[in-house]
Design goal:
about 400 residues; F-box domain-containing protein; twelve-stranded parallel sheet; alpha/beta; LRR_dom_sf; two-stranded parallel sheet; about 25% helix; about 20% strand
């Protein structure tokens, strides 16, 4: 190629470079203009007062908060949108008043969970706290700092659920604690073969002046010291018959009670002392107004509950609501005897037996139930059921379920 041709080609390239530079310059200028326009825009959501945004954030909380960590729902999700939302969310105590953490075997615990607990509960400020702790807590890293955080915020806890090993309860309790706001408490023990009776009675909740609601899952009363006489609502899950009766005796001011009763044939639990012939003494509880007997499968004994059996040992002259849910081997004679003996001002009766006895079934709801207004009876077998009642204005319903 001749020199003239090469010079002409170079000139064309120089001209193209010049044009591309001009295009780049024009594009940069256009970008700056658009960016300035974007910067001048005011997003409506960011013009809201912080109080309004905070209230909107509170309505974003899930109905049933999941276990930590969960960055796919409020409040952690809100912290990852923008700096403005992060600041608002972090300064909204209502978003942080519920703290649920699980440390289960086979699942990697939340990294630095002690630090997370400290930051989370600090953001709740003076809001009443709802705290759930599940798992082998003392085996996690930084357990010591977590204990300090728990103690620091105990005074602000309104609801507390602890599902841990017996040893973890005692490691968590390192000295006197005050729970001046605690109203609802749930205690369950993780199964690990521990001898619960080997521990001294836990004094963690000795100072809880307004505690009135308690759930205990197969936990002996000897395991923990509680203000039993001030409790008005109690749930006993997977209790044997003697344990249920002992719990009722210990709570004279109880108004509402839920029980799952199992192991009615072996009354060898030392929750209370049975009579000399091995049968627990029956007694009257005049303040109990609502009783629910539900069925729960005992993992330890692999035996179905027999909750209705407790009626043979009770007289409840103040009972207004009675629910019998999923009763095994339902015996209407036991119910009839209980009603005749107690003569309660019963307003509501619900019966949902799981296995029904063969033959004719007759539930006597006669003149000793003048206040009954709501009656619901389910019977899964194709049996004839008779209910004679003076049920006044209200609801009376009978449902036939499917045969197993």
């Amino acid at each position: 190629m001749s020199g003239t041709s090469l010079r002409a080609q170079a000139a064309d390239l120089i001209l193209s470079i010049s044009r591309q530079k001009q295009i780049l310059h024009d594009t940069e200028a256009q970008f700056k203009t658009v960016q300035q326009q974007l910067d001048s825009l005011v997003y409506p959501v960011l013009t809201l007062p912080h109080e309004i945004t905070s209230e909107i954030f509170v309505h974003c909380l899930p109905a049933k908060p999941s276990w930590l960590p969960n960055t796919t729902e409020a409040p952690l999700l809100l912290m990852h949108v923008c700096s403005a939302w992060r600041n608002i969310a972090g300064s909204t105590p209502a978003l942080w008043s519920t703290f649920n953490i699980a440390l289960t075997a086979g699942i990697e615990p939340y990294p630095y969970f002690s630090e997370v607990a400290k930051a989370w509960l600090q953001r709740a400020s003076h809001r009443p706290l709802s705290v759930k702790i599940f798992g082998r807590v003392s085996q996690a890293d930084n357990f010591g700092p977590f204990t300090e955080t728990f103690r620091r915020h105990a005074a602000g806890m309104q609801s507390l659920e602890l599902y841990m090993e017996a040893v973890d309860f005692h490691r968590l309790y390192t000295g006197p604690l005050r729970f001046p706001m605690l109203q609802s408490l749930s205690i369950r023990l993780l199964e690990n073969g521990e001898d619960v009776d080997a521990y001294e009675a836990l004094e963690m909740f000795g100072d809880a002046p307004i505690l009135h609601e308690l759930l205990m899952g197969d936990v002996p009363r000897s395991f923990i010291i509680l203000p039993w006489d001030q409790l008005t609502k109690f749930t006993g899950d997977l209790y044997n018959l003697v344990g249920c009766l002992g719990a009722l005796r210990a709570m004279p001011n109880l108004v509402e009670c839920h029980f799952s009763v199992y192991d009615t044939d072996h009354l060898d639990n030392n929750h209370v002392q049975p009579s000399s012939d091995g049968i627990p003494d029956s007694f009257s509880h005049p303040k109990l107004e609502s009783l629910t007997l539900f069925e729960s499968m005992s993992v330890a004994f692999l035996t179905p509950a027999r909750s209705i059996k407790i009626l043979n040992f009770l007289t409840l002259p103040g009972l207004q609501i009675l629910h019998i849910m999923g009763a095994q081997d339902f015996d209407e004679g036991e119910l009839n005897s209980f009603l005749a003996r107690s003569a309660p001002p019963l307003r509501e009766l619900l019966i949902r037996p799981h296995v029904h006895s063969e033959g004719h079934t007759e539930i006597q709801l006669t003149s000793f139930l003048p206040n009954l207004t709501d009656l619901e009876i389910w019977y899964p077998e194709n049996n004839l059921l008779t209910a004679s009642s003076t049920c006044s204005a209200g609801t009376m319903a009978f449902f036939r379920g499917s045969r197993a």
